[in-house]
């Protein structure tokens, strides 16, 4: 086609552009504007120059900061349930009560046994005190004194054993009341009143509690991403998320904007050898309880330092197989295709890494009339960023 500059454009791309020009012409007319006809109008604008930062996106899920399975420490029949399934509970709130009567009886017996042993100890101490005086007066033998001393020592040990038994019985009685170890949302009860609850190693699961605020967001990054972040940290361009709480933004499956802010607070110490990924974790506020453990979401994490970039709308970009192009209008109104390298989408616009200059007039509207090599009538437009576009 006449008027197309071929310098720097591969032959395959030229063929593709010829086909584009043919299809846009409607009937295979030449690319040039026929004599006597005015050049078709198109809207052009210089690329938006802006300092930007790349963001990497990941899919992940929310997890609770704390999670616990409530299980009994003692065995017995469930006497009462003190909560409603799914409600928010406070730390220390009473949730389940196991019939305490057998444990109260055990405690009463342990305390009685303790009193008996304390009485024996007191008697043994008096006997030893008397034997000490008598030994000094040579009224008792050394053997008799030693026997009373040994009896007193044994009584002391018996008291200590009885005290331990009483404390253990007190703990068992206390364990009949299952309380919330932290504030959060409790699930449904796993057992009803009247059932036998097993404690110890094969303890019965009673319910689960998860914290609500704050909440974690966990995701996996590739080995290539991990290496990129290491290089950026080494160069001082971007701090490592291991050492700094880098800012993140999250959106849910029904949202278009990154409206939930958080901070990185953990990167795993090794890569998974099976998947070649490393686990990262961010923490977000959840005061309105929108996020729930297990929910999926999308997270974006700062992926570069700040740099100068040129941005155009996606509508200004055309494709020729794997090659991306923008149409640039020269001073004489001639349309010239420029192969470009695309970057990420930021604020609703596409970053152009290479292929155009900040002074180029890029066709942003009326692209179907901007045939390569043809003349157009450029109308000035403006490229505007849309902050926080999804």
Brief overview:
This protein has 3 domains: 11-52 and 307-380, conserved putative lor/sdh protein from methanococcus maripaludis s2 fold; 55-65 and 212-302, Efflux pump adaptor protein, beta barrel domain (Elongation Factor Tu (Ef-tu), domain 3, Beta Barrel), CATH 2.40.30.170; 67-100 and 176-210, RNA polymerase II/Efflux pump adaptor protein, barrel-sandwich hybrid domain (OB fold (Dihydrolipoamide Acetyltransferase, E2P)).
Indicate the topology.
Elements: H1 11-25, E1 41-45, E2 48-52, E3 55-64, E4 67-71, E5 76-81, E6 88-89, E7 94-98, H2 101-136, H3 142-174, E8 177-179, E9 184-186, E10 196-197, E11 205-210, E12 215-222, H4 223-234, E13 247-251, E14 260-267, E15 277-284, E16 296-302, E17 307-312, E18 317-320, E19 323-329, E20 335-346, E21 349-354, E22 361-365, E23 377-380
Parallel strand pairs: 1-23
Antiparallel strand pairs: 1-22, 2-17, 3-12, 3-16, 4-11, 5-7, 5-10, 6-9, 7-8, 9-11, 12-15, 13-14, 13-16, 14-15, 17-21, 18-19, 19-20, 19-22, 20-21
Helix pairs in contact: 2-3
């Amino acid at each position: 086609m006449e008027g197309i500059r071929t310098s720097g454009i591969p032959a395959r791309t030229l063929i593709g552009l010829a086909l584009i020009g043919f299809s846009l012409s409607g009937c295979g007319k030449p690319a040039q504007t026929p004599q006597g006809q005015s050049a078709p109008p198109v809207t052009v604008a210089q690329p938006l120059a802006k300092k930007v930062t790349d963001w990497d996106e990941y899919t992940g899920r929310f997890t609770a900061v704390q999670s616990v399975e409530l299980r009994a420490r003692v065995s017995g029949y469930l006497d009462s349930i003190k909560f409603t399934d799914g409600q928010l509970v406070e730390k220390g709130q009473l949730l389940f009560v196991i019939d305490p009567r057998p444990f109260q009886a055990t405690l009463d017996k342990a305390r009685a046994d303790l009193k008996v042993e304390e009485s024996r100890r007191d008697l043994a101490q008096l006997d030893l005190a008397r034997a000490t005086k008598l030994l000094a007066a040579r009224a008792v033998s050394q053997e008799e004194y030693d026997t009373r001393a040994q009896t007193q020592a044994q009584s002391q040990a018996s008291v200590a054993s009885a005290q331990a038994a009483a404390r253990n019985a007190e703990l068992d009685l206390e364990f009949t009341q299952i309380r919330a170890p932290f504030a959060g949302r409790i699930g449904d009860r796993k057992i009803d009143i009247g059932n036998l609850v097993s404690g110890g190693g094969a303890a019965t699961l009673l319910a689960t509690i998860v914290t609500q605020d704050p909440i974690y967001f966990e995701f996996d990054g590739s080995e290539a991403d991990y290496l990129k972040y290491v290089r950026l940290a080494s160069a001082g361009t971007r701090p490592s998320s291991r050492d700094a709480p880098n800012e993140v933004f999250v959106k849910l499956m029904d949202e278009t904007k990154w409206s939930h802010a958080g901070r990185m607070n953990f990167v795993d110490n090794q890569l998974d050898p099976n998947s070649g990924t490393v686990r990262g974790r961010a923490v977000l506020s959840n005061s309105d309880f929108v996020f729930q453990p297990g929910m999926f979401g999308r997270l974006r994490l700062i992926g570069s330092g700040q740099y100068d970039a040129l941005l155009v709308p996606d509508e200004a970009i055309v494709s020729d197989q794997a090659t991306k192009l923008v149409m640039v209008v020269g001073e004489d109104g001639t349309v010239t295709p420029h192969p470009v390298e695309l970057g990420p989408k930021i604020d609703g616009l596409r970053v152009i890494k290479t292929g155009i200059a900040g002074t180029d007039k890029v066709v942003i509207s009326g692209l179907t009339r901007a045939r390569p090599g043809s003349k157009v009538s450029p109308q000035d437009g403006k490229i505007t960023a849309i902050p926080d576009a999804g």
